[in-house]
Specification:
The protein has 5 helices and no strands. Helix 2 (about 35-45) packs across helix 3. The model has no long low-confidence stretch (mean pLDDT about 85). The protein has helices at about 5-25, 35-45, 55-85, 95-110, 115-130. About 75% of the residues lie in helices and about 0% in strands. The longest helix has about 35 residues, at about 55-85. It is an all-alpha fold. The relative contact order is 0.18. The protein has one domain (about 5-130). InterPro entries: DUF4064 (IPR025273). It comes from Staphylococcus argensis.
Length: about 140
């Protein structure tokens, strides 16, 4: 079985995952810039005008943004690497690849890539559910 639609969904998800890694890589250097941090603090203060957050809380949120972006980049790279390897074994082990893509969909949610999650979840379900075509042989008399 060719499994064309599964491959299309998987490769679109991979393309989106690599785009996300690129975007995170572009954003990461700005997380250490003081002017960028002050703009984020100001926007948080404007959004939360109720006064429930103190300046210490806002400073804590902004300081943790750098840690989160590094976490997201690492997770996105790991997910992309596993997805790339699994994409190469779709024809040989479709059921195993389907289970792996469903697990990758869960991990992609954690890396904030919701569209790739949808693609990989659909592809994983299709890989598990669809059966290989059986060739029918006629008995020769």
């Amino acid at each position: 079985m060719k499994r064309v639609w599964e491959k299309i969904l998987v490769w679109l998800g991979l393309l989106l995952q690599f785009a996300l890694i690129f975007i995170y890589g572009v954003i990461a250097p700005f997380m250490n810039d003081d002017s960028f941090k002050s703009e984020i603090k100001d926007s948080i203060k404007e959004e939360v005008s109720s006064g429930k957050l103190s300046n210490a809380d806002i400073n804590s949120i902004v300081s943790h943004l750098n840690e989160w972006i590094i976490y997201l980049i690492g997770l996105a790279i790991i997910v992309a690497a596993v997805a790339l390897i699994t994409a190469l074994i779709i024809n040989k082990l479709p059921k195993t690849a389907g289970v792996i893509f469903i697990l990758l969909a869960i991990a992609a949610v954690l890396s904030l890539n919701f569209i790739a999650t949808l693609f990989w979840l659909i592809a994983g379900i299709m890989l598990i559910v669809r059966r290989n075509k059986q060739t029918k042989r006629k008995a020769r008399a």
